[in-house]
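Quick entry, no commentary yet.
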Amino acid sequence: IIVLLQEFCNLFVNQALNYLTPEEIFKVELEEALEKVQLTIHVLKGFKDCFHQHRLKISQYFSHTTEVKHWDFPTQMVFARFDRFLDRLLKIEELFDTAIEFLKLEKIEIGGSKGKVFSEKVYGIYEEFQECWRVFGESKYDPLDYNNKEFLSDHSRYMEQIHDFDKRLGSVLNLAFQNSGTLESAFKVLIVLWCV
């Protein structure tokens, strides 16, 4: 049963690779790529959940006179490759989620006496993000290869930069709130952020 389940896992991973097309994943529209990655994650998690459900109910598949043989083997024996691939997909999903959020910065315009300065700072963060994101689009490696260390290095550097952008963006927005002299202008800042 272990070998059979490993083959199922390999089949799911190979079908996912065919569906996602590794060389195109960072070159297509972000929303489309994110949707495909999320669907793949959903299917893989569904398969693993199904395994665990049936593992618990294994005794129901035997007649009362037959001795029940439980699946007491370590799941790592079955899901070693599968879990590494799923982990890689979760990292890619995280990249796409943050990229979609940061690409919305292009549309932000903050009003008020210093609004133009604040808007320029936000747009500067947006341009820095574009440079950061370009690394993935121009990469030559297979991002779905869970053995690839280059991707992990780029992912870690990207997440560090995202944390830096978050802090800088937070300080700009904090200054925009402090600069808003009335409650109405503070609400306008909130509305601008909410609409993005």
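second:
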Amino acid sequence: GRGQLLPPQNVTLLSRDFAMILTWAPGEVPGVTYTVRYESQDRPDKWMKVPHCKNIPRTFCNLTCALPNFYVKVRARVKVVWGRFQSPWVQSQFKDYYSDVELAPPVLSLDVGENSIHVTASFPLPTCVENLTWKYDLNLWEAGSEDKVSKSGSFQKKYEGCFRKDTVTINTTALSGNYCLSARALYESVSTKHSEFSQPVCVLINPRG
């Protein structure tokens, strides 16, 4: 008779760091492989193959660039394969990239000139979503003033809704001392989504004396 393997556990479709990823916990047999397929809501009962996630040893599959449409909900399923044995499929819930995507903070790069700082933000994007209109918000403040932002006299400046490939140029002529920058990714879909703010990057500007 046909042997049957225990199926994968905790099958979950995650939207994380700009990517749509199916994850699962391994079954009990070591050395098995996994095969993944997905279905979109506009083509029910048509399970599409994912060539880069066929007979894989790892317990996740990045589906982002396999999806033909980011505006339609999809779900995925996975089974265990071991020789000629296989487990039943286990399905995830439906998700859609456009409204469910979770953002990672951008990585800031600073070019400090004599009277200006040029700031660029890079994003850990899958290649297939490069053309979506990602933006970022940038904050600049004087180091040590974080807990006094609401009081008058402490310096803080916001640059909101910068396009991903735009360089923000900050005039530093009037600034002196240690200043910090932090940014968050921004994506406008049905509602506006934000990432967490990035770890602050601090620079010394026009040190006195």
